[in-house]
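thought: fold this chain, then report.
action: predict
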Amino acid sequence: MVLAFNARLSTQDVDAVFEPPEIIRRRAQEIADEIDLPVDWLNDGVKGFVSASPEYTTEGLPEMAHLRIVRPTAEYLLAMKCMASRFASYASRGDRNDIALLIEHLKLRDAESVFRIVEKFYPPERILPKTTFLIQELFQNSP
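observation:
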């Protein structure tokens, strides 16, 4: 959200899917030690939301010969954020603001449009009630 959509100035961690995990985790720990970052600054928890039919892009990202960086398309990121639908807490911003920003970015006008995108990446039976309620609530409160 920070790199692709300039949604906020910073983030508490970097969500990533990486290979090979053992080497990357070890190097992330070394980096954390070197520059005094939290040990969990590189977070692979997002792997639980990876779709069987993902869509990635390199748009707006740095290109390097030694590192391949991709990000989810706006639609895929919206679907992943909706599937997570985390509530804000003391330790987390939650997903509500990111979902609202992506809905605006994609110029979606109703909840059904959001559900069509989510169902493009995930089977409807995996969509939790909290996701349904959050999406419907976002459109109830819009002008």
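thought: worth noting. DSSP finds six helices and four strands in the chain.
final: tokens above.
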